[in-house]
Write a structure and sequence with these properties.
By secondary structure, this protein is mainly alpha-helical. The chain has 13 helices and no strands.
């Protein structure tokens, strides 16, 4: 429940801050806009961290089918490495898609204000997607929902590159946001769904490090792709293809119940 509440609140970020950023940029220069946004961030998050991070750490949850042994063995297994690659590909495409959505829409004839509003509506779509995660998790296996969510994320990214009408682009942007909302929880539960919670911190840290790196590079990479391919629309086709490759790889992320193949590491 705490995870759902946290992610639902976080999903409203772009819904609130995209229009707010445009309004501030219309009134001030970009430096002042950044300072105002930083001040808002500090006022909200610093007291929240001081007050909210005092709870006790719960006992780890060990799933019946999980392999809780030495985390080194798990971190070297093929399913774990496939999980990193699959989630990194999907996160890269999603992050580049979000940060380059406004330039794409402006390229398609949107005004900056309407483009920012569409980005905000995509954030609202993320909130809706997170609400639907629990019913999806109850009716699907880990493999099915991982593959299907990443695949739909890739297809929606491709569709953004192909669509041209205003109504279609807004609708697809909201739908893509919905899928990103589900993907956020796919990523958050990836370790516990496969290996339980005994070594969650270590395994999640190993998994998250490359994902965070590619997400940080994604906005820049999306712009570079638009230059190489000639337009943001073409860049979205490439991003969608990357996510679809990640969907294929994600089918190999489920560990065996008893044995897991490991990659030998030479010292």
């Amino acid at each position: 429940k705490a995870l759902m509440i946290l992610t639902l609140a976080a999903g409203l970020a772009s819904t609130v801050f995209a229009p707010l950023s445009v309004a501030l940029a219309d009134r001030f220069d970009w430096r002042t806009t950044y300072l105002v946004l930083a001040a808002i961030l500090a006022v909200i998050t610093i007291p929240g961290h001081i007050w909210g991070l005092r709870g006790g750490w719960p006992d780890p949850i060990r799933l019946p089918h999980a392999q809780p042994g030495d985390y080194h063995r798990t971190s070297r297994s093929l399913p774990f490495l496939a999980l990193i690659v699959a989630l990194a590909a999907a996160a890269f495409a999603a992050s580049a898609g979000v940060f380059n959505l406004v330039p794409l829409l402006i390229e398609r004839g949107f005004s900056p204000s309407l483009a920012a509003l569409t980005l905000g509506l995509g954030g609202a779509g993320q909130v809706i997607g997170r609400i639907f995660y629990l019913p999806l998790a109850a009716k699907t296996s880990v493999r099915v929902r991982t593959v299907s969510v990443i695949a739909v994320a890739g297809l929606s990214t491709v569709w953004l590159g192909l669509a041209s009408s205003t109504a279609a682009l807004i609708g697809i942007a909201v739908g893509a946001g919905l899928v990103r909302g589900i993907f956020t929880l796919i990523q958050a539960t990836a370790i516990t769904d496969r290996w339980g919670g005994e070594h969650y911190g270590r395994l999640n840290g190993l998994m998250s490090a490359p994902i965070v790196i590619v997400m940080a590079l994604a906005p820049w990479a999306g712009t570079v792709l638009s230059t190489w391919t000639g337009s943001y629309a073409h860049a979205y086709l490439v991003l969608g293809a990357i996510a679809l490759v990640g969907a294929v790889i994600s089918a190999a992320t489920i560990p065996a119940l008893r044995t897991t193949t490991t990659i030998p590491i030479t010292s």
